[in-house]
Amino acid sequence: MPAAKALVESVVTAIALITDLIIVFFISRSPI
User: Fold this and answer.
1) pTM of the predicted structure, to 2 decimals
2) Alpha carbons 9 and 19: distance in angstroms, whole number
């Protein structure tokens, strides 16, 4: 089912983007 594959890929992409935002957020907050 190509629709399910596209859905999984979009979810993985969204999780990767959110993870990048969280990492950047913690790096910018850390007092270095």
Assistant:
1) 0.64
2) 15
Rounded Cα distance, 15 and 9, in Å: 10
Secondary structure in 3-state letters for the chain: CHHHHHHHHHHHHHHHHHHHHHHHHHHHHCCC
Q: How far is CA 28 from CA 1, 7, 11, 16, in A?
A: 41, 32, 26, 18
Per-residue pLDDT tens digits for 1-32: 788 999 999 999 999 999 999 999 999 998 76
Cα–Cα distance for residue pair 1/8, rounded to 1 Å:
11
